[in-house]
Design brief:
Shape: globular
GO molecular function: cysteine-type deubiquitinase activity
Keywords: Cytoplasm, Hydrolase, Nucleus, Protease, Thiol protease, Ubl conjugation pathway
Main location: cytoplasm
Number of strands: 38
Distance between the termini: 52 Å
Domain USP: 132-710
Strand content: 25-35%
Structural class: alpha+beta
Helix content: 10-25%
Largest sheet: 8 strands, mixed
Family: Belongs to the peptidase C19 family.
Amino acid sequence: MKRQLPLKCFICIWQLIEFKIEVYPVEIFLCLHSNMENVVTAQFSHTIQKVMMKQFDVVEGAETRLWMKSSDTCCERLRNVNVNVLDSSLSSGMTVIMEMRNEDGTWPSSRPQIIRNSVEEQESYRGQPGVCGLTNLGNTCFMNSALQCLSNTPPLTEYFLQSAYLEELNFTNPLGMKGEIAEAYADVIKQMWSGRHYSVVPRLFKTKVGHFASQFLGYQQHDSQELLSFLLDGLHEDLNRVKNKEYIELRDADGRPDQEVAEEAWHNHQRRNNSVIVDTFHGLFKSTLVCPECRKVSVTFDPFCYLSVPLPVSKDRVMEVFFVYLDPVAKPVQHRLVVPKAGKVFDLCSALSEMTNVSVNQMVVADVFNHRFYKIYHADESLSCILDRDDIFVYELSSGSVEEEEGDEVVLALYLRERSHYRDSGSGSSSCGTSLFGHPLLMAVPRVQCSRNALYHLFLQRLQQPCHTEEEEEKGECPPQTNERQAKRKGYQARRRKLLFSIHAVNSNGTTERGMGEDGSAFSFSSQPYVAIDWDPDMKKKCYNENEAEKYVKHQSMEVPHQQTTVQLQECIELFTTVEILEEENPWYCPICKKHQLATKKLDLWSLPEVLIIHLKRFSYTKYSREKLDIIVDFPLRLVISCLSFTPPSRYDLIAVSNHYGGLRDGHYTSYARNKDNGQWYYFDDNKVTYAREEQIVTNAAYLLFYHRQDKIRQPTLPPPSDSSSSPTQPANVTSHKHDGMERAISCVNMETD
């Protein structure tokens, strides 16, 4: 049986350990980064930073950081300067180097690479603090946009500029990043607000983000809201004042007053989460769930960091298509259609049928890209497969050819190619290549007319509009336009004449030729057949009019202005607080019914934070569609919003906006932000910064809105720039300027890794 030591023994052992530390202090070498020749030897066992600052007469309040050097080349950051010598893994003989932050926000050890016009400019540039661009490292505009919005959030920026974060770095939080994200963010902010740089290169920050969040590794385009969410959470955990999080069992309201339950929820939240991020950005939701069976009501209060509000989604969408008539003389017609957003390709054809009086059964819809068919759609396919930027062509075919796959007719996909002859420089032999041009066609051809000669005449008739057949007929270089009976009778004459083009079976890309039968024999088509007609360059120039082939006419539906939908921000917030039924994938367990239920859920705003971030959910993902909503959300620059906590309505001022231009697959992020010191609005586009007016800010690109509560706003201490009102689009003096006909180089700071 093990014998347990009494409490007094543990106390004595601890005292002996303390006594041993005092008796055997560690001897280390101290020096400054700016003067590494001046090395001082010291023996102590407590914190190093205060000793070094006193030893080297460092001004109190100066921001410093320490490096441990164990060899001539190896240096490691001593991040937690408040631990004692033994806890920091320092041993005798090691050197500790102290460096002080430069006035421009950089560190001497970062080896900044400054790109400016002259040596004098490196030291002489003085700009408005905070009005500083961020260099795009490669698809990092999403990160730059989010950083600019946060940089112009006064309470958070002042917290870092005043170095208050140094006393609150949490190095032991298992949910945090050992303080590294907070330090990397502080470096960016201090450089941007030093007034010494046109633009900063946030390379170290990007590296740290990718290290702790693998989804941001590399240089793919991402979502600024996702980056913002990660950054706020990372900063919170790195700066969490709660060192040891206690387990807290959540309680249901059980009929208690809302005020009591809300105060309890907020108190419990702060027992585990207490940081500048909570102080600035966190508010409280009231969540109400009602069981549809027993009517049990469950009320909880949950913290939030931002509001993700839905946009009113229309059930219809507007699509633009080109209709290609069966008549070869008729030009394609561009139509604008209104179709169900969750509809099928059949619905598109139905809407087009009403405008053209052509039966739906005679239509085939295809996506044309780069002179070939990217996709040929079936009638039962979802319209969500078609993007707004796709070039959609609808072809009229002969009656019955669309529905009967094994009928008397086969639908051919026809490509146009131009042959080119070139000589191989290595072997000296001549080779032949092809390149696609023009718009492809879809044709219904009788299966009995799939011979080379018959197809030639059918294709020639189909290309009647862009081809000059009469003048060639006169010179005997091509056969006249004939019907099938005449073609059979005069087939031997056609072979004697020079043909306009040759016919080849190809794959869907129009590039790989497949085998074909002897001259005059029929093609064998087992699946969707693709055929190319190849033109000799000289013959194409004589007989094919590309300009004529590209012409189209606009239907009157295209003349009706497409009015862009505008909604008010208040509508989005009201939609966010609307009662909804839980989805089947996310049911609620009812404690009364003892089973999962699809309960009704309602969210209400109980209390609001000092800085309110509103995320406009422009990217819509449903079972039926994936799209970006480009509707204009008319958001006010002065927002009044009410909540349920029996307090007066909160009044906010807009301070920043993150914008997204483009669609689902690609796009570009920028931002508008109001400088806290001079009150001027600026437009940030990566490393470019220009003046902006308030009336320019509301656009259909707005994605993230930052509002600051009016009772917390500090009035600007500087007057606005004198030329900002008279020349709002003129680049500010912190961006690239024109000088002697040449664009001036942009000042950049390259933040290297530790």
